[in-house]
Inverse folding.
């Protein structure tokens, strides 16, 4: 699918793709979608959450660590436990998996 580069909501579509790919366990695709969105809106912390968790669960720990560094620069004090409890996924298993990926990259509980 091609999206218009002038679409002011382009990064939001990519974020939704990242959410869906993550839930389906397609971590490489989730990372790709998050990275495209980061290029358009680098100040959006949720994009780094998705990239870091997906990298972490894909075993790409160095990349997860870099994404977490960018996340914590935007949101100091963010923790895996807070995200596990409050992230927007409805299913607890998805939030737990997200937190597991973030912890793999070194985000504090």
């Amino acid at each position: 699918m091609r999206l218009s580069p002038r679409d002011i909501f382009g990064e939001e579509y990519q974020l939704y793709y990242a959410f869906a790919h993550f839930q389906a366990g397609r971590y490489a695709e989730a990372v790709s979608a998050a990275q495209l969105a980061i290029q358009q809106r680098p100040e959006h912390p949720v994009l780094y959450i998705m990239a870091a968790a997906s990298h972490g669960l894909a075993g790409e720990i160095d990349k997860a660590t870099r994404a977490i560094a960018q996340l914590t620069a935007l949101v100091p004090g963010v923790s895996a436990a807070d995200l596990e409890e409050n992230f927007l996924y409805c299913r607890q298993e998805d939030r737990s998996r997200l937190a597991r990926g973030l912890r793999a990259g070194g985000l504090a509980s």
